[in-house]
Amino acid sequence: MKIIIHGGFFSESSTNSETKKAKQEALSKIVIQGYEYLKTHAALETVAYTVSLLEDNELFNAGLGSQIQSDGKVRLSASLMDSKTERFSGVINIEDVKNPILIAEQLLLEEDRVLSGEGAQKYARQHGHQSYNPITPSRQADFDEKLKQQENKGTVGCVALDNDGKLAAATSTGGKGFEIPCRVSDSATVAGNYANKYAGISCTGVGEDITSAALAAKIVTRVTDGFTIEEACKKSFSELKPFDGFAGVVGISANGDVCHYDSHPYMVWASFDGSLQVFN
C-alpha cells in the first residue's frame, strides 16, 4: 500500500524559502491524509480524494488558486484512470467549479467519459456541483500585474497502490496562465495521466511537451513491456531532450516501486508507505 503525490514545479523554490517550506509542509500533510484514506478505500477513490485536497490548497495550481487565462477566466482540467477497469475519464476547460477531479471521478460511470467546456459544466451542475469561483486575491493580483503566472509550470497529481494491488492515477491543473482561452493541457489526456495493472503515472510541466512525448502512456507501456518503472522513466525522458521538454512525473508500479523523475529541478512531491519522503 503506497501513495505518491506532486505539486508541480515552482520557480520560487530557488529564491523563496518560505514558499518552498509551505509547499513541503502542505504536501507532507496531504500525502499522509491520502495514505490514511487509502487504508480503507480503493486506489481509485484515494487518488480522487487526495487530488481534491491539493485542489483545495491555494499554494498549488489546481482548483483553488489556479492560473488565470488571457481573457481573465479560470478554466480547469482534470482526469483519472483506474487500473481495475482501465477506464479513463476527465474534464477539459471547465469553469466555475471547486473540484474538477471529483467531476472526472463521476464521469467514470458514464459512456461518454471526457467532457469539455459548457458540456462539462452542465454535467457538473446536474450532479450536484454548485457554482464556485476559484480565483484567489493573490492570483488576481498576479494576473493584473501580468508577471508571476508566466513563470509557473505545474499541476497536481496522485498515484496510489491499494491493498488489493490495484493502481490508480489522477491529475488536475489550472493551466499555465495567460494562455489562449480554452488551450488544452496534457492533464486530461492519456499523455498526462495514465494507469493500468502494471503502473500508474501522473505528469506535470509544460503540457505541450508532455503531449508531444505521449509521456504518461509511454512510460506505462514500457513498464507493461518489461521495463522497471525507473528504466521506463529514464528512457522516456531521454526522448524529451531533442526539444528540451519540460516535464516531471510521479509513479508507482504494480510491484510497489515508487518513482519520481523530472527533466528540470524543483518538481515538488511527497510519498508515504508508512514513512514519509518529500522533495527537499
Can you give keywords for this protein?
Glutamine Phosphoribosylpyrophosphate, subunit 1, domain 1; 280 residues; alpha+beta; 4-stranded antiparallel β-sheet; 8-stranded mixed β-sheet; globular
Plain-language structure description:
- The chain has one domain (2-275): (Glycosyl)asparaginase (Glutamine Phosphoribosylpyrophosphate, subunit 1, domain 1), CATH 3.60.20.30.
- The protein is 32% helix and 25% strand.
- The chain is built from eight helices and twelve strands.
- The protein has helices spanning 17-38, 43-55, 100-107, 117-126, 137-145, 207-213, 215-224, 229-238; strands at residues 2-9, 76-82, 87-94, 114-116, 156-161, 167-173, 193-195, 199-205, 247-253, 258-262, 267-272, 276-278.
- Strands 4-3-2-6-5-1-11-12 form an eight-stranded mixed β-sheet.
- Strand 2 and strand 3 form a beta hairpin.
- The model has no long low-confidence stretch (mean pLDDT 92).
Question: TL;DR?
Answer:
The longest helix has 22 residues, at 17-38.
